[in-house]
Design the sequence.
């Protein structure tokens, strides 16, 4: 079965809006991470978040490991937030990736 | 270095040509990974090194793919007799030992186009 599942697959928002991206992961996957891949292909590690909540500026993430999900919050979206957001987790040291959420922020 | 450095940034190869892609991980990171990312998809695992030891190469798609990390730092991914289906972005990542709160850091990738 699917080990890492992300939703929604696509999201289009106006600049300034808030958004929540979700990642569900199976028992075999641990140590959740969130990445942003910008339109130029660079993968940026946003959060390493096996559990709990972390915040970095307008972004925050929460992982509830016992319920096997993680949420990424983006507040006051900017056009530079556009790109694909991936969550991924360790499974025997390999990163298992979700299919990504493609976010488009319109000015 | 401050980040994971990959070179070249772009590579165009004629079908049948051999290519070598370089990855310079973050200093002190013992774990190094290669991933392949096709357009519109998430990265796919290729191989994993811990120091100079290649512990897993199960993701390498064929015996034309070969990776090495002889001194436990810089790694090279070599593709022999390139085919069009090898066109993709090749990403390198490094991480500190398990238990440290760093996760994985990716390089900018090498975009390989086989023509």
Sequence:
């Amino acid at each position: 079965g699917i080990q890492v599942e992300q939703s929604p697959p696509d999201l289009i928002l106006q600049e300034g809006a808030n958004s929540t991206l979700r990642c569900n992961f199976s028992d075999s996957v641990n140590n959740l991470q969130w990445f942003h891949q910008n339109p130029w292909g660079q993968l940026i590690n946003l959060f390493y978040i096996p559990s709990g909540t972390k915040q970095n500026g307008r972004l925050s993430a929460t992982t509830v490991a016992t319920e096997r999900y993680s949420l990424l919050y983006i507040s006051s979206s900017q056009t530079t937030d556009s790109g694909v957001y991936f969550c991924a987790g360790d499974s025997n040291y390999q990163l298992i990736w979700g299919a990504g959420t493609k976010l488009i922020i319109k000015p | 270095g401050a980040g994971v450095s990959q070179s070249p940034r772009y590579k165009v190869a004629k079908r049948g040509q051999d290519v070598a892609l370089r990855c310079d991980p973050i200093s002190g990171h013992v774990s190094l990974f290669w991933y392949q990312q096709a357009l519109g998809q998430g990265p796919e695992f290729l191989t994993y090194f811990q120091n100079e030891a290649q512990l897993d190469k199960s993701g390498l798609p064929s015996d034309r793919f070969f990776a090495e990390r002889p001194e436990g730092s810089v790694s090279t991914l070599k593709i022999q007799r390139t085919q069009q289906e090898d066109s993709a972005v090749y990403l390198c990542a490094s991480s500190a030992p398990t238990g440290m709160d760093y996760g994985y850091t990716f390089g900018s990738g090498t975009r390989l186009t086989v023509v």
